[in-house]
Design a protein that fits this description.
Two copies of one chain form a homodimer. Chain A is about 45% helix and about 15% strand. Chain A is α/β, with parallel strands linked by helices.
Chain lengths: ~325, ~325
DNA sequence: CTGAAAGCGCTTACAG
DNA sequence: CTGAAAGCGCTTACAG
């Protein structure tokens, strides 16, 4: 394996000088830098990152931790985050963790290895972070994306999110405005997912504002197509009076659409469906999904900006961005 | 930050002994091991991987390189691969690279850092690997997944794939068996993608077997929904006589279904669609997609088994698994 | 079974 | 501007 010593020997300089050229340090003469760079290029040499990270006190890396591998919303946000970080001249280390893994412990373990300047957490519960974060959010600037922070005890934790209570209410209000009264909800588990709890809460408020109520016309399950399918099937067999369903994610909504079809019902002819998140797929399916779009790119960019400001010594901010109702074919007027 | 030295001090042993306990080496007395482990557990200590990988000659890691971040087929295969590796008592390092990045160079760079026992490559062109692999596939056992190796000059390269020519032909044969004669194809670029070239070739053969021909009724584009949408729109405006379309991936097929809808055509009423890959989503959309399913889980598990055998000194094998035609609602009988 | 020591490939004060 | 040297946190022969 080729190392920095080989490059040094071949370029006729010391290892220190090669290191300086590699990391673009200014204290190298033009002539030397050019000569060394030529050797580096010739071998397409890149410094071993294990050694680099082991020694380096301060990396120009931002750690991005994503909870859940199958989340289309997160997938698209990670891309925007990465683009914004690259534009800022920093590098990104993305680490995925299972939906039921301990993401805070995971991040804590990565920090001494990556020595990032800051970290962006996608889908990480604020309460959990506050409780078990020792470094992340305490000594390390941290931004939560998509998860709201209510009361922050940690000066280095910022957040960019949408208002899930308001969004849940908006979904219902939209369905009501189209004439629906008998509305069911398919979502995540309000006990383990703060986001689900908030959207459910919002849905309840949206209904009670209209003098309606949800009662037991909701099912809590996982954020997947198959779960959305099962939950919708169960919901409609218990409540055949439903004319509309609010699914707390687009992926669930796709499962719901299929479930309706399998039940011999038509969407939106018999039952309307509204989703949540606004992923690309939502506009491709037939019928295209009415959905509440989280401004993915904007959230990602704001998240990075806020993190950079935090790293530069700025104050924590908690930003709430509005969702946008994306019209589509999956909801029809009722009556 | 807590290090192995802190653990050693607290447990009253040397750093070497802690290291042995950490890596489960047998040459530690029961009593010592228990005592050290208690301290490790108490601090939830994990060895810094930078230091570990830097020093360690031989890791128990398998490197998995995935080309393309948005590939649903790969996403599901990675999961199966990871499960099989874990079952074998090894650990997995997954690295994603953009569709147009140089995956071989990427893998080569990772090897000295991760020192894996072997590597599994998803979506990597065999020719490219043979040409530019210096370590990967040469000194490092390597398995290509989904990409066939025709003639292998490299004794450490195995492969598990489906026969893309046969699959392409099968897609056409199926459509013909349902009465279709005017068939178009939407796929990847045959110049840059061997898989696309093979499927296109297969499609041509399938047609000529029936005394039919493809002529210019095909469009080469990218493997995405939007590309599938555009290509289908273009294809049908140039060839309104088409009654069926073969899309070389399910994602493209979803774009095609939407395009038909947008053109005011019905699927399968006016135009039938057959996809390729058999991703989960294909069975959820309405109409559900007829598709050629690559046996994802089986391919992943065979790939890992073959890699382990290769690592153990076995011979290279090139396994071709059959695709399975998944019935669905997106194709109707014609005439 | 255990410890002292060398060294993995880098970066970074420190001198010059 | 450049180099010699120390050291990051581990693993692993080597002795005992």
């Amino acid at each position: 394996m080729i190392t920095i010593r080989d490059i040094a020997r071949e370029a006729g300089v010391s290892v220190s000088t090669v290191s300086r050229v590699l990391s673009g340090k200014p204290d190298v003469s033009q002539a030397t830098a050019v000569r060394v760079q030529a050797v580096i290029d010739h071998h397409a040499f890149e410094a071993n990152r294990n050694a680099r990270f082991l020694k380096q006190a301060d990396t120009s890396t931002i750690l991005v931790v994503v909870k859940g591998r199958h989340n289309l919303l997160f997938a698209s946000m990670v891309e925007s985050v990465q683009a914004a970080i690259t534009e800022a001249g920093l590098s990104t280390a993305v680490s995925y963790i299972d939906e039921d893994g301990d993401e805070v412990a995971h991040a804590e373990r990565l920090v001494p290895e990556l020595k990032p300047q800051g970290t962006i957490l996608l889908g990480v519960d604020a309460g959990h972070l506050m409780r078990s974060g020792k470094r992340v959010g305490v000594s390390l600037p941290t931004v939560l994306l998509t998860n709201v922070v209510r009361s922050s005890t940690h000066p280095l934790v910022s957040s960019v999110a949408t208002d899930d209570v308001a969004s849940g209410a908006e979904a219902i209000t939209y369905l009501v405005s189209r004439g629906h009264r008998d509305i069911g909800v398919v979502g995540g588990d309000p006990v383990t997912s703060a986001i689900s709890a908030n959207r459910l809460d919002g849905a309840r408020r949206g209904l009670s504002d209209q003098g309606l109520s949800l009662e037991d016309r909701w099912v809590a399950t996982r954020f997947s197509m198959s779960s959305g399918h099962e939950a919708t099937t169960a919901l409609l067999s218990a409540h055949p009076e439903l004319t509309a369903i609010y699914a707390m994610s687009d992926i669930m909504a796709l499962g719901a659409l299929r479930a309706l079809h399998d039940l011999g019902l038509r969407a939106p002819g018999d039952v309307s469906v509204i989703g949540h998140d606004g992923v690309e797929l939502a506009s491709y399916v037939v019928p295209s999904l009415v959905t509440l779009r989280q401004p993915q790119d904007q959230m990602a960019r704001r998240g990075v900006d806020i993190l950079l400001a935090l790293i530069a010594g700025g104050e924590a901010v908690h930003e709430v961005l509005p969702v946008e109702l994306v019209p589509g074919e999956s909801v029809r007027d009722w009556r």
